[in-house]
Write a structure and sequence with these properties.
Layout: H1 10-29, H2 55-77, H3 80-85, H4 87-113, H5 120-145, H6 149-163, H7 165-179, H8 184-210
Helix pairs in contact: 1-2, 1-7, 2-4, 4-5, 5-6, 5-8, 6-8, 7-8
């Protein structure tokens, strides 16, 4: 049985999530001037002066561009009003998001995962995230093509949850700074927890609402 409109928190959760994503995304993008030109004293580029230039450089910048674009497109595509009033715009934005993810975000994420800062555990976490992102994008797109719109919505929700791993990572990093926690183990754990925990919560929420 679905909750009544008076007790259903979803109408509030969606705008609050949108605000949180936009705020954290703005904080992430505010650091971009440190990467153009690359500042090797910044946290993310620390110790990469010898390995940055070459293929890693281009995948890094592709990831910087594709991440925020795919997240903002996800926010727009999650708008019920846009989907109902302007279905053609929704379809165009959806195709654009899938293209950005499959052509830029996933390949660059996979390449960068091989050079994860704290080693193989973190690298495997980011590589698995990239593959899961690609899989959900393809399955969501395929469901829309064959007009299985309920399944399409489920896969797109999963996709957006995976894209929000960047937001979760940023929040985890800020919390670590505030609490004084540090260490390679923390970064490795965050590489997995940043998407596994939100995805588990997303599935639990979906099952609860369905019941």
């Amino acid at each position: 049985m679905r909750p009544s409109s008076l007790t259903d928190p979803q109408p509030l959760l969606k705008p609050l999530l949108g605000v949180l994503v936009c705020v954290v995304l703005a904080a992430i993008v505010s650091n971009y001037p440190r990467y153009l030109p690359p500042d090797f004293t910044s946290d993310f580029l620390l110790g990469r002066a010898d390995s940055f230039f070459g293929a890693y450089q281009w995948t890094f910048y592709a990831h910087l561009a594709a991440g925020p674009v795919s997240l903002l497109l996800g926010l727009a595509l999650g708008s019920d009003g846009l989907r109902r009033r302007y279905p053609a715009v929704h379809r165009v934005l959806g195709r654009l998001q899938i293209a950005v993810i499959l052509l830029f975000l996933v390949p660059s994420g996979l390449w960068m995962s091989a050079s994860a800062a704290t080693g193989a555990v973190a690298g495997l976490g980011f590589a698995t995230l990239a593959l899961a992102t690609a899989a959900t994008a393809v399955l969501g797109w395929r469901a829309a093509v064959v007009r299985r719109f309920a399944a399409h919505g489920i896969w797109m929700t999963r996709l957006f949850t995976l894209l929000c791993s960047a937001v979760v990572l940023r929040l985890a990093s800020s919390l670590a700074i505030l609490t004084g926690l540090h260490g390679d183990w923390l970064y490795a754990a965050s590489a997995w927890a940043s998407w596994l925990l939100p995805l588990a919560a997303c599935e639990a929420w979906r099952i609860t609402r369905r019941g």
